[in-house]
């Protein structure tokens, strides 16, 4: 009979060492990943806080900054451009909010007469109340616009009160007093210039020679030159009425410019808030992913560490 050989027991030490090495390596990787993710928790915290702030902002809460015009802005004018400026004619009158416009017109005219008209030269004509209203207030035009709902009375009232306040400050400014006194003492020079105009004349468009008279007539425009003589102020000197008009128009143009800029700024802020809302939501989602990844890694690390610890305890127990 063949001799039966006893099977040698399988040496499992090599396999156990491989598993132990893999286990240690995996734990080291998890530990390193946990440290990296823990470091990212600072970034996730910042993302979460900034995301909450951005999402909490409301674009509708942005209000347009009220436009304010100062006396210094009104007095900053081009004297040459303002010299001899003409005002627009008024439109047909209608009645609405007449009490305020009438009272304001009286106060505004009083400002002009006390602070500007007082510096007129003796030969200068004074502006009548209807002319003043036609050039600077145009009550009937405003009333007509209010009736058509093209003008908000409360807003217009506030603008006019601001106009009167700023114009009063501008009238008392030293630069305004210097300009008015310069006009009061200025010597006007008489200058002549040739103006070319056109006039309509009637002419014979078809002449009948056989009957020796014109058969049909027509009209045509012909140039006509005439000499205009006027009194001219020195350069840089402006009349009180033109100075008042320049300040008045500068206030309006500056107010419109400020409102346009403020509206654009408010709209830009609203758009930024809407974009921040979207970015905030994305930041919150990223923060949640980082925190979730950290929790998963820590759970796996804890699970393997507990299992390894249990095996060590089991190996030290007596058989």
Which SSEs are present, and which pair or pack?
Elements: H1 13-56, H2 71-75, H3 79-82, H4 98-115, H5 129-137, H6 139-147, H7 153-172, H8 174-184, E1 189-208, E2 213-232, H9 240-316
Antiparallel strand pairs: 1-2
Helix pairs in contact: 1-9, 4-7, 7-9
Concise summary:
The protein is an alpha+beta fold and 319 residues long. 62% of the residues lie in helices and 13% in strands.
Describe the protein's architecture and organization.
By secondary structure, the chain is of the alpha+beta class. Among the domains are: 13-59 and 273-316; 189-232, no CATH class. 62% of the residues lie in helices and 13% in strands. The protein has 9 helices and 2 strands. It has helices at 13-56, 71-75, 79-82, 98-115, 129-137, 139-147, 153-172, 174-184, 240-316, and strands at 189-208, 213-232. It has a two-stranded antiparallel ribbon with strand order 1-2. A hairpin with a 4-residue loop joins strand 1 (189-208) and strand 2 (213-232). Helix 1 (13-56) runs antiparallel to helix 9 (240-316) and helix 4 (98-115) runs parallel beside helix 7.
Descriptors:
319 residues, alpha+beta, two-stranded antiparallel ribbon, disordered N terminus
- How would a textbook summarize the main sheet? 2 strands, antiparallel
Content-based structural category: alpha+beta
Reading the helices and strands in chain order gives HHHHHHHHEEH
Distance between the termini: 40 Å
Strand order of the largest sheet: 1-2
Percentage of helical residues?
Answer: 55-70%
Q: What is the global morphology?
A: elongated
Structural Rg:
45 Å
| Model regions low in confidence, pLDDT < 50 over at least 5 residues | 1-10, 89-95
Task: State the helix count.
Answer: 9
Number-wise, the strands total 2
* Residue share in β-strands: 5-15%
- Mean model confidence by pLDDT: 79
